[in-house]
Structures are given as structure tokens and as C-alpha cells.
Amino acid sequence: MVLIAPSILSADFGRLDEEIKLAEEAGVDMIHIDVMDGHFVPNITIGPLVVEAARKATNLPLDVHLMITNPEKYISDFVKAGAQYLTVHVEACVHLHRTVWQIKEQGIKAGVSLNPATSLTTVEEILQDIDLLLIMSVNPGFGGQNFIPFCIDKIKKAKSMILNKFSNALVEVDGGVKLENAREITEAGADILVMGSAFFGEKNYKEFMEKLKKTLSI
Ligand code: DX5
Ligand code: ZN
Fold first, then answer.
1. Is the entire prediction scored with pTM above 0.95?
2. I need a labelling partner for 156 at 20 to 30 A (CA). Which of 67, 118, 119, 123 fits?
């Protein structure tokens, strides 16, 4: 069973409420929200206020991906805004274990993300503590980039590391996920597919979800 999480980064922000509602009606499983600070990644996007607006638009879980430095400073702001999953980057956390537990102590799910070139060994010790492992399949910062092929192998390795550690963490894949490669990524071990441009670039989200579910046999 694979979950679909459209990234609102590629949505029309002038109609954000409607865009999220249309995604929900189309049958998506969660809403992915990309928070960028212009330091960790070369782009500035969304803050807690937009997460709060998204919270009002839907009851679906909000999957908030923090691409920011010092994420520990903003955890309670995003929890208050309505995040249900909060994911931090291993490259941005000096004390990753402390940050993960800071998130979990607030009663929500904790995720850890890796840039494409960051080795899985950096999260090996924390796999049993986390709810989600986010494998970036593009260098974070922008929507609409191409999936980096070596990430297929990384997803397979991530899945087997999780199973070996008896962790319940879900494997989420983010960046360049499209109708054409969704099946291969899922077969490699992804439990959650983030889709930005491939989803919001479509005219009819319902039709797209039908095609996607057919491709994934779900
Ligand atoms: C990239 C973001 C992604 C992005 C994905 O930095 O983390 O979530 O929105 O967009 P697509 O699916 O267009 O690659
Ligand atoms: Zn993301």
C-alpha cells in the first residue's frame, strides 16, 4: 500500500484552499508542505502561517518537510500550526537524536530526510526512533527537477536497513516522482510518494489519481 502526498509547492497559492480541497477530493493521502529558508536551500517558501491555512482547508495529515537550518527552533511553531509529520534534514541537525525526540514529545510523527549525496549510514542509529525516512531524489530547493537515478538503489538499501533494524519508519521519496517512474520507485521500497509538479501540473487531479492508482495497482 503506497500513500500519495502532493507537494503544494507546485500548487496555485492564490487558490491554495481550493487546490488542497481538490487534491483531497481526488483521493490523496496526505498534503506535503515544503518549508525553505534561503539558507539550507537556495529558495524561500512557506512558514507556519501557510501551514495553518492548509490545516483549515483539510483534515488530511499535513506532512511538513523542513529544509531549514536550526529546525529545532521552529518545531513548536509548526506543531501549533497543525503539522502531523515534521521532517528535519540530517545535514541541518547537529544533535539529531535530541531534535527527533523534541518532535515526538510534542505528540506528532518525526521524520528525518537525507539529501541525495548523504549516506544512509548517517541515520542508521536513529532508525528505531523515527516514523519516517525521507529520501530526497533531487537536490532540495525547487520543484520540477529530474529524479536522480542512483536514488533507486538508495531506496532499496533504506528499506532493507529499516527491516533489519525492526523499525516501523515509512520510506518517503521526494523529487522528480512522476506517473512514469512511480511504479519503479514503489517497487524499490517507497511507502509514500511526494509529487509536486507531476500532480499540480495536471488539469484534472481526480483523473491523474485514477491513472496513478492503476499504474501502482492500488
Ligand atoms: C524539493 C521539494 C519537493 C518538491 C517536489 O526541494 O522538497 O517536495 O516540491 O517537486 P517535484 O515533484 O516537482 O520534483
Ligand atoms: Zn519536500
1. yes
2. 67
Fold exhibited by the domain 3-216: TIM Barrel (3.20.20)
Kindly give the number of the ligand 1 atom that is closest to the alpha carbon of 32: 8
Q: Judge whether 189 is annotated as a binding position.
A: no
- How far is C-alpha 59 from the chain's CA centre? 17
14 annotated to bind ligand: no
- Convert the pLDDT of each residue in 72-129 to its tens digit: 999 999 999 999 999 999 999 999 999 999 999 999 999 999 999 999 999 999 999 9
> Could you read off the pLDDT of 20-56 as tens digits, one per residue?
999 999 999 999 999 999 999 999 999 999 999 999 9
Catalytic residues: 34, 174
Distance set, CA 125 to CA 96, 109, 135, 165 (Å):
10, 18, 16, 9
Cα 107 to averaged position of ligand 1 atoms, centre (Å): 26
State how far the Cα of 85 lies from the Cα of 126, in Å rounded to an integer. Answer: 16
